[in-house]
Give the backbone structure.
Amino acid sequence: MRLVSCRPIFTGDHTVSDGIDPPAPALSDAPLPAEIDEFLVHLEKERDLSPNTVLAYRRDLRDFSTWLATTRGADGWQWDALGRTDIRGFLAHCTRRGLAKRSIARQLSAVRSFFRWMHRDERIEANPARAVASPRLARTLPAYLDKSQAALLLEHAATRAQSLEFTDVRNLAMLELFYSSGLRLSELRGIDLGDLDLVVQQVKVRGKGRKERIVPLGDHAQRALRNYLVKRDVLLTKVKDSNKKPARGAVFLSERGARLSPRGIQHAVVTLLSAVDEGAGLSTHSLRHSFATHMVDGGADLRAVQELLGHASISTTQIYTHTSVERLKKVYRQAHPRA
């Protein structure tokens, strides 16, 4: 087994006393400890995690190593000398910073993964993060559209698409696909022409961890996509004539012919959602929640919904059974004379 020592990122002689954290150094661009850099390479190259996921790990582990540097001073530390109290101290520090429980749980997850990798690679003798409990999270029901709202939203988008303007036709296709197949924003954005099969009405998407799955397309989504692809071909012809280099492989394009950005997708969808329920805080993810809720309400098997959503664990999908139960309770309270 290798003992690994780490030089601190920041210099200074800060110590923690009376539960008050020392001021955090403002050197966010300082190099990370070599072990964290190696772990991030492992996530990217061996586990093939998405760039956004690797970036989130980098951010959380930077917070952890920064805290270690400020509390342990200029002499550095040995990873093998860290224990549960150190990690709990970091969580307490996150709490005092005012981070939400969900953010703290995410940071702890990153630290756990890092120490698990260190332990498996025999860089440390024991994994101190293994026994540290995660904050208990409140189980909140996701925002979603009821069936009448969903119908109103799609009718509104279809009316706009009658203008035959490229963006209106495209936005209807995106909405229909979100609601028809329960996609994440990143999944919809990443769809290429080769992933679409409108004959058998299915689409291949790449979910978290770049895991691929095939999901069905409804009739309405298929028609909206066919109409949009005609407009897309016209746009590409115009872009070609203007000497711009379009993203020919991508399905959803901007008016300039580039793959539509996440912000562009959000703006288009949220603008349409505001016509249904302005100020409700609905987003592209609300369409995914609506898809799952309506599937469960319609009697779909929970395992099937799990597969369609690309959830790794059935427990994540079970939130939609709670949504259905809460909806039934609301109906009961409104209708029963002794509720």
Q: What stands out?
A: The domain at 147-335 is CATH 1.10.443.10 (hpI Integrase; Chain A).
